[in-house]
Amino acid sequence: GDFPIDLDTVVIGSGPGGYVAAVHAAELGQKVTVIEENDQLGGVCLRVGCIPSKALIQVSHDYQTTLHSADEGVAASDVDLDWSKVQGYRGSVVQRMTNGVAYLFKKNKIDVIHGRAFLKDQHSLRVMKGDSAQTYTFKNLIIATGSHPIEIPGFKFNGRVIDSTGLLELQQQPKELVIIGGGYIGCELASAYANFGTHVTILEGTDAILRNYEKDVVKIAQTNLEKRGVTIVTNAMAKSAVDDGNGVTVTYTLNDKEETVNADNVCVAVGRRPNTKDIGLEQVGIQTDQRGLINVDAQGRTNINNIYAIGDIVAGAALAHKASYEGKVAAEAIAGQKSVVDYRAMPAVCYVDPEIATTGLTVAEAKDQGLDVKSAKFPFSANGRAVSMHAPDGFVRLVFTKDQSQIVGAQIVGADASDLISELTLAIESGATVEDVALTVHPHPSLSEAIMDSADVGLGMPTNI
Ligand code: FAD
Which PANTHER family match (predicted)? Predict the structure, then answer.
């Protein structure tokens, strides 16, 4: 028989939303149980997203550096790219990080149940594993079931026609690769494979790749992708992929004309959908919008007061750090605290070459919000560290209010932009001004000096440009 087992706080999903929520809830004194259908903990991010993609990108840079350091006086011959070792490295990084989540659960006395959760009512759910099912009751629930790649008609996944997961895990390096979709996931993977020597074609349906970013930001990344041989076709509507056993022929339309391109693999990276179907939301009456995203308040609470939702299944950028942030707030809300989310300083990074990192508002977004803002820009070509690193491309741009010079946004394109952006996220978070940044002593020589220099530009008294 299926006798219910009583639980306290339950989290469905162990991705960056779920595992962080679980750890924080435990730290706040709750007894926490996580339900995860995958054998490995860590969700998309650790298993088949952020972490393995960055491992491949790192190795692809190492390979490029090894090949192209001759003008610095380091010439390598017979450089060997051992693809199975590359894949082994990716796997080992993933294993290490997912083990880390298991360690954190143990340390915080969090129980894990492996199986697929399905809601029954406001206080109970069922977990299915194979043929067995068990009912659990809960006091509070955090849903963090994440998202999955969208499939498009004409592109049935079959090993050659793959999603981002398939592309990360390819057992053979393709000579020719087609990526459908020029969003950040498509462009990051295009960049990595291009570095490895694969010829990549990006087919983008709209008139530009990386459409979330400003034109001058995208231009640098796009020029660099093209320099490494990536073919970028915009306004290309992908129609079908036909597998003839040796490869795939992709048909697309461009200006009403049919075109084809042949490849060893085709990756569909046109976006992701929330995992909110088939989890029993309707059993409880949890409301979603037209896209299937769960409606929540500023604490992550759904319309059912003891059930919360976080991460890729709620509105906003589908990013790991946003999921974790919401997870902490939901855990605090369950603990009775007054915490609410504030998305004013939310960073986003695209790990192409060079990296693109943004935080807060662009000039256009600030103006849309009725803010009277200015911007100041400083190029890495005037930064000694960047030049000595072979990385003179890109810039730092600050966006700040005209009257108070309060920083409300920033865009960085350049080496290590993903790390540099945090200084400016902190600036926004703490209400810092352009003067604050300009008066902060930055170590020399460092990439971070470009941030101080951009503040000097903002004050109208640049030293280094
Ligand atoms: P997920 O990480 O998707 O985790 C959800 C978990 O819930 C999964 O483990 C799943 O098995 C489990 N689950 C689902 N349904 C059930 C159920 N019914 N019962 C039990 N368990 C269930 N973001 C970044 O911020 N930076 C990056 O560099 C980045 N790179 C990416 C690269 C790629 C290739 C991809 C695909 C994504 C990338 N992302 C990146 C996005 C990031 O992975 C997601 O935003 C993040 O994983 C969302 O976290 P989450 O906790 O909401 O869900």
Answer: DIHYDROLIPOYL DEHYDROGENASE (PTHR22912:SF160), DISULFIDE OXIDOREDUCTASE (PTHR22912)
Which DSSP string do the residues of 315-379 spell out, in sequence order?
A: SS---HHHHHHHHHHHHHHHTT------GGG--EEE-SSSEEEEEE--HHHHHHTT--EEEEEEE
Ligand 1 atom with least separation from CA of 167? 34
The one-letter amino acid at 280: G
Q: Does the CB atom of residue 164 touch ligand 1 within 6 A?
A: yes
For the question of residue 123 being annotated catalytic, the response is no
Among candidate residues 332, 299, 12, 315, the one with its CA nearest the CA of residue 141:
12
Asked if 361 and 198 touch (Cβ cutoff 8 Å), the reply is no
6 annotated as ligand-binding = no
Sorted by sequence, the CB contacts under 8 Å of residue 173 that are 6+ apart come out as 81, 83, 193, 196, 197, 198
**pLDDT for 244-289, tens place per residue?**
989 999 999 998 999 999 999 999 999 999 999 999 999 999 999 9
Q: Which atom of ligand 1 is nearest to the CA of 148?
A: 3
